[in-house]
Design brief:
This protein has two domains: 77 residues; 179 residues, Glutaredoxin, CATH 3.40.30. It contains nine helices and eleven strands. The strands form four sheets. A five-stranded mixed β-sheet has the order 5-4-3-8-9, with helices on both faces. A two-stranded antiparallel ribbon has the order 1-2. Strands 6-7 form a two-stranded antiparallel ribbon. The two termini are 17 Å apart.
Amino acid sequence: MPRRIFGIAAAATVRERRPGRGWFAAALSGTALLLAISAILMRPGGARAQESQTASPTFDEKLGEIVPGDIEVILDNGSRARLADLIDRPTILSMVYYECPGLCTPLLNEICDVLGKSDLDPDREPFQLLTVSFEPRDTPATARAKRDNYAALLSRPLPRDTWRFCTADAANIQRLTGAVGFTYKRVGEDYIHPGGIVILSPTRKVVRYFYGTEFLPFDFKMGVIEAARENVLPTTARVLRFCYSFDPAARGYVFNLTRVVAFVMLFSAAFAVGVLLLVTRRPRRRET
Protein backbone atom coordinates (compact mmCIF):
# COMPACT_ATOMS: atom_id res chain seq x y z
CA MET A 1 0.00 0.00 0.00
CA PRO A 2 2.76 2.58 0.84
CA ARG A 3 4.48 1.74 -2.44
CA ARG A 4 1.25 2.41 -4.31
CA ILE A 5 0.80 5.77 -2.56
CA PHE A 6 4.40 6.64 -3.31
CA GLY A 7 3.90 5.73 -6.98
CA ILE A 8 0.78 7.91 -7.25
CA ALA A 9 2.62 10.81 -5.62
CA ALA A 10 5.55 10.41 -7.99
CA ALA A 11 3.22 10.37 -10.99
CA ALA A 12 1.49 13.50 -9.75
CA THR A 13 4.88 15.17 -9.38
CA VAL A 14 5.75 14.29 -12.95
CA ARG A 15 2.40 15.65 -14.14
CA GLU A 16 2.99 18.90 -12.24
CA ARG A 17 6.43 19.30 -13.79
CA ARG A 18 5.23 18.81 -17.33
CA PRO A 19 3.77 22.34 -17.62
CA GLY A 20 7.23 23.70 -16.90
CA ARG A 21 8.64 21.60 -19.71
CA GLY A 22 5.82 22.80 -21.97
CA TRP A 23 6.58 26.40 -21.06
CA PHE A 24 10.24 25.92 -21.92
CA ALA A 25 9.40 24.21 -25.22
CA ALA A 26 6.94 26.97 -26.16
CA ALA A 27 9.43 29.70 -25.36
CA LEU A 28 12.15 27.89 -27.30
CA SER A 29 9.87 27.43 -30.31
CA GLY A 30 8.76 31.05 -30.22
CA THR A 31 12.32 32.31 -29.98
CA ALA A 32 13.35 30.13 -32.91
CA LEU A 33 10.43 31.45 -34.94
CA LEU A 34 11.30 35.08 -34.20
CA LEU A 35 14.95 34.45 -35.06
CA ALA A 36 13.94 32.79 -38.33
CA ILE A 37 11.77 35.74 -39.31
CA SER A 38 14.51 38.17 -38.34
CA ALA A 39 16.98 36.25 -40.47
CA ILE A 40 14.61 36.48 -43.43
CA LEU A 41 14.23 40.21 -42.94
CA MET A 42 17.97 40.75 -42.64
CA ARG A 43 18.93 38.82 -45.75
CA PRO A 44 19.36 40.59 -49.11
CA GLY A 45 15.94 41.36 -50.52
CA GLY A 46 14.41 41.41 -47.01
CA ALA A 47 12.57 44.36 -45.52
CA ARG A 48 15.68 46.00 -44.08
CA ALA A 49 17.61 45.55 -47.28
CA GLN A 50 14.74 47.05 -49.24
CA GLU A 51 14.49 49.90 -46.77
CA SER A 52 18.18 50.66 -47.11
CA GLN A 53 17.87 50.66 -50.87
CA THR A 54 14.90 53.04 -50.88
CA ALA A 55 15.94 55.02 -47.82
CA SER A 56 15.44 58.71 -48.33
CA PRO A 57 15.52 61.92 -46.31
CA THR A 58 12.54 62.55 -44.12
CA PHE A 59 11.43 64.71 -41.19
CA ASP A 60 13.35 64.42 -37.94
CA GLU A 61 10.64 65.78 -35.67
CA LYS A 62 11.53 68.71 -33.41
CA LEU A 63 8.24 68.96 -31.55
CA GLY A 64 8.32 71.56 -28.80
CA GLU A 65 11.54 73.20 -29.98
CA ILE A 66 11.79 76.88 -30.90
CA VAL A 67 12.92 77.92 -34.37
CA PRO A 68 15.59 80.65 -34.00
CA GLY A 69 14.18 84.09 -34.68
CA ASP A 70 17.36 85.45 -36.26
CA ILE A 71 17.08 83.15 -39.28
CA GLU A 72 16.64 85.36 -42.35
CA VAL A 73 14.60 84.70 -45.46
CA ILE A 74 14.32 86.76 -48.63
CA LEU A 75 10.83 87.95 -49.53
CA ASP A 76 9.56 87.99 -53.10
CA ASN A 77 10.33 91.72 -53.33
CA GLY A 78 14.01 91.07 -52.59
CA SER A 79 14.02 92.40 -49.02
CA ARG A 80 15.29 90.36 -46.10
CA ALA A 81 13.21 89.55 -43.04
CA ARG A 82 13.92 87.77 -39.77
CA LEU A 83 11.60 84.98 -38.68
CA ALA A 84 11.14 86.78 -35.38
CA ASP A 85 9.53 89.62 -37.34
CA LEU A 86 7.56 87.42 -39.75
CA ILE A 87 6.12 84.82 -37.39
CA ASP A 88 3.69 86.53 -35.05
CA ARG A 89 0.74 84.15 -35.52
CA PRO A 90 0.20 80.44 -36.25
CA THR A 91 2.30 79.67 -39.31
CA ILE A 92 2.06 76.78 -41.73
CA LEU A 93 5.58 76.23 -43.04
CA SER A 94 6.32 74.32 -46.23
CA MET A 95 9.84 73.61 -47.46
CA VAL A 96 10.05 73.22 -51.25
CA TYR A 97 12.15 74.22 -54.21
CA TYR A 98 10.46 76.03 -57.04
CA GLU A 99 11.75 73.94 -59.96
CA CYS A 100 10.90 70.63 -58.28
CA PRO A 101 9.60 68.02 -60.76
CA GLY A 102 8.18 65.81 -58.02
CA LEU A 103 6.52 66.33 -54.64
CA CYS A 104 6.61 70.11 -54.36
CA THR A 105 3.94 70.91 -56.93
CA PRO A 106 1.39 68.37 -55.54
CA LEU A 107 2.13 69.67 -52.04
CA LEU A 108 1.56 73.33 -52.97
CA ASN A 109 -1.52 72.40 -54.99
CA GLU A 110 -2.96 70.60 -51.97
CA ILE A 111 -2.21 73.51 -49.66
CA CYS A 112 -3.95 75.82 -52.13
CA ASP A 113 -6.95 73.49 -52.37
CA VAL A 114 -7.31 72.99 -48.61
CA LEU A 115 -6.83 76.68 -47.97
CA GLY A 116 -9.69 77.41 -50.34
CA LYS A 117 -11.96 74.79 -48.75
CA SER A 118 -11.16 75.71 -45.16
CA ASP A 119 -13.37 78.22 -43.38
CA LEU A 120 -10.39 79.72 -41.58
CA ASP A 121 -10.70 83.49 -41.57
CA PRO A 122 -7.41 85.39 -41.12
CA ASP A 123 -9.33 88.21 -39.42
CA ARG A 124 -11.05 86.00 -36.82
CA GLU A 125 -8.34 83.35 -36.50
CA PRO A 126 -5.05 84.93 -37.53
CA PHE A 127 -2.73 82.59 -39.38
CA GLN A 128 -0.33 82.60 -42.30
CA LEU A 129 1.48 80.29 -44.69
CA LEU A 130 5.20 80.52 -45.28
CA THR A 131 6.74 78.66 -48.20
CA VAL A 132 10.53 78.73 -48.24
CA SER A 133 12.76 77.28 -50.95
CA PHE A 134 15.68 75.15 -49.79
CA GLU A 135 17.39 75.66 -53.16
CA PRO A 136 19.82 78.59 -52.67
CA ARG A 137 19.81 79.24 -56.43
CA ASP A 138 16.10 80.12 -56.41
CA THR A 139 15.51 83.86 -56.72
CA PRO A 140 12.89 86.32 -55.45
CA ALA A 141 11.61 86.57 -59.03
CA THR A 142 10.93 82.82 -59.05
CA ALA A 143 9.21 83.08 -55.68
CA ARG A 144 7.10 85.98 -56.93
CA ALA A 145 5.98 83.97 -59.97
CA LYS A 146 4.94 81.10 -57.70
CA ARG A 147 3.06 83.48 -55.42
CA ASP A 148 1.13 85.01 -58.32
CA ASN A 149 0.34 81.58 -59.72
CA TYR A 150 -1.17 80.24 -56.50
CA ALA A 151 -2.90 83.50 -55.68
CA ALA A 152 -4.77 83.06 -58.97
CA LEU A 153 -5.64 79.45 -58.12
CA LEU A 154 -7.15 80.21 -54.71
CA SER A 155 -10.91 79.76 -54.68
CA ARG A 156 -11.43 82.66 -52.26
CA PRO A 157 -9.73 86.00 -51.77
CA LEU A 158 -7.26 86.32 -48.90
CA PRO A 159 -5.07 89.18 -47.69
CA ARG A 160 -1.87 89.40 -49.69
CA ASP A 161 0.40 88.58 -46.76
CA THR A 162 -1.52 85.40 -45.84
CA TRP A 163 0.75 83.26 -48.02
CA ARG A 164 4.36 84.32 -48.48
CA PHE A 165 6.82 82.70 -50.88
CA CYS A 166 10.46 83.16 -49.90
CA THR A 167 14.00 82.15 -50.70
CA ALA A 168 17.14 82.14 -48.56
CA ASP A 169 20.88 81.78 -48.76
CA ALA A 170 22.62 78.48 -48.03
CA ALA A 171 23.51 79.29 -44.42
CA ASN A 172 19.98 80.30 -43.44
CA ILE A 173 18.49 77.37 -45.34
CA GLN A 174 20.68 74.99 -43.36
CA ARG A 175 19.62 76.59 -40.07
CA LEU A 176 15.92 76.58 -40.91
CA THR A 177 15.78 73.01 -42.23
CA GLY A 178 17.77 71.84 -39.22
CA ALA A 179 15.46 73.67 -36.81
CA VAL A 180 12.33 71.94 -38.14
CA GLY A 181 14.01 68.60 -38.91
CA PHE A 182 13.57 68.76 -42.68
CA THR A 183 16.25 66.68 -44.40
CA TYR A 184 16.98 66.47 -48.12
CA LYS A 185 19.63 65.20 -50.51
CA ARG A 186 20.78 66.46 -53.87
CA VAL A 187 20.66 63.95 -56.72
CA GLY A 188 22.05 65.49 -59.91
CA GLU A 189 20.16 68.73 -60.51
CA ASP A 190 17.23 67.71 -58.32
CA TYR A 191 16.61 66.82 -54.69
CA ILE A 192 15.15 63.90 -52.81
CA HIS A 193 13.09 65.23 -49.93
CA PRO A 194 9.98 64.44 -47.87
CA GLY A 195 6.54 65.89 -48.43
CA GLY A 196 4.66 67.61 -45.63
CA ILE A 197 4.09 70.78 -43.65
CA VAL A 198 5.21 72.02 -40.26
CA ILE A 199 2.97 74.11 -38.05
CA LEU A 200 4.61 76.75 -35.87
CA SER A 201 3.06 78.66 -33.00
CA PRO A 202 3.28 82.49 -32.71
CA THR A 203 6.41 81.98 -30.59
CA ARG A 204 7.98 79.87 -33.41
CA LYS A 205 7.50 76.65 -31.46
CA VAL A 206 7.21 73.50 -33.58
CA VAL A 207 3.79 72.15 -32.57
CA ARG A 208 2.74 69.72 -35.29
CA TYR A 209 3.69 67.89 -38.49
CA PHE A 210 1.47 66.78 -41.34
CA TYR A 211 3.05 64.29 -43.74
CA GLY A 212 2.34 63.58 -47.38
CA THR A 213 0.56 65.69 -49.96
CA GLU A 214 -3.04 65.27 -48.84
CA PHE A 215 -4.64 67.03 -45.87
CA LEU A 216 -8.14 67.34 -44.49
CA PRO A 217 -9.52 70.89 -44.09
CA PHE A 218 -10.58 70.03 -40.53
CA ASP A 219 -7.06 68.89 -39.57
CA PHE A 220 -5.67 72.00 -41.25
CA LYS A 221 -7.97 74.20 -39.18
CA MET A 222 -7.37 72.35 -35.90
CA GLY A 223 -3.62 72.61 -36.45
CA VAL A 224 -3.93 76.39 -36.63
CA ILE A 225 -6.20 76.57 -33.58
CA GLU A 226 -3.93 74.36 -31.47
CA ALA A 227 -0.87 76.33 -32.60
CA ALA A 228 -2.52 79.54 -31.37
CA ARG A 229 -2.78 77.86 -27.96
CA GLU A 230 0.87 76.73 -28.09
CA ASN A 231 -0.27 73.11 -27.84
CA VAL A 232 2.23 70.54 -29.05
CA LEU A 233 0.49 67.57 -30.66
CA PRO A 234 2.08 64.19 -31.48
CA THR A 235 2.10 63.09 -35.08
CA THR A 236 -0.61 60.47 -35.55
CA ALA A 237 0.48 59.98 -39.17
CA ARG A 238 3.67 58.15 -38.21
CA VAL A 239 2.00 54.92 -39.27
CA LEU A 240 1.93 56.27 -42.82
CA ARG A 241 5.69 56.75 -42.71
CA PHE A 242 6.03 53.13 -41.61
CA CYS A 243 3.71 51.76 -44.30
CA TYR A 244 5.05 53.91 -47.14
CA SER A 245 8.56 54.43 -48.48
CA PHE A 246 9.83 57.06 -50.85
CA ASP A 247 10.68 55.71 -54.30
CA PRO A 248 13.28 57.98 -55.98
CA ALA A 249 12.49 56.49 -59.40
CA ALA A 250 8.78 57.19 -59.13
CA ARG A 251 9.38 60.48 -57.27
CA GLY A 252 6.69 59.60 -54.77
CA TYR A 253 5.63 57.41 -51.86
CA VAL A 254 4.83 53.73 -52.51
CA PHE A 255 3.29 51.12 -50.24
CA ASN A 256 6.03 49.09 -48.54
CA LEU A 257 4.42 45.64 -48.64
CA THR A 258 7.50 43.80 -47.36
CA ARG A 259 7.78 45.99 -44.27
CA VAL A 260 4.09 45.68 -43.41
CA VAL A 261 4.05 41.90 -43.93
CA ALA A 262 7.16 41.57 -41.77
CA PHE A 263 5.49 43.53 -38.97
CA VAL A 264 2.35 41.39 -39.18
CA MET A 265 4.46 38.21 -39.06
CA LEU A 266 6.42 39.38 -36.03
CA PHE A 267 3.26 40.48 -34.24
CA SER A 268 1.55 37.16 -35.01
CA ALA A 269 4.58 35.20 -33.79
CA ALA A 270 4.73 37.21 -30.55
CA PHE A 271 0.99 36.71 -30.03
CA ALA A 272 1.32 32.96 -30.60
CA VAL A 273 4.17 32.71 -28.10
CA GLY A 274 2.12 34.64 -25.56
CA VAL A 275 -0.85 32.30 -25.99
CA LEU A 276 1.39 29.23 -25.64
CA LEU A 277 2.94 30.58 -22.47
CA LEU A 278 -0.50 31.35 -21.05
CA VAL A 279 -1.84 27.90 -21.84
CA THR A 280 1.16 25.92 -20.63
CA ARG A 281 1.43 27.83 -17.35
CA ARG A 282 -2.28 27.42 -16.51
CA PRO A 283 -2.55 25.18 -13.41
CA ARG A 284 -4.18 21.81 -13.94
CA ARG A 285 -6.67 20.24 -11.57
CA ARG A 286 -5.26 17.41 -9.54
CA GLU A 287 -6.96 14.10 -9.90
CA THR A 288 -8.68 12.92 -6.81
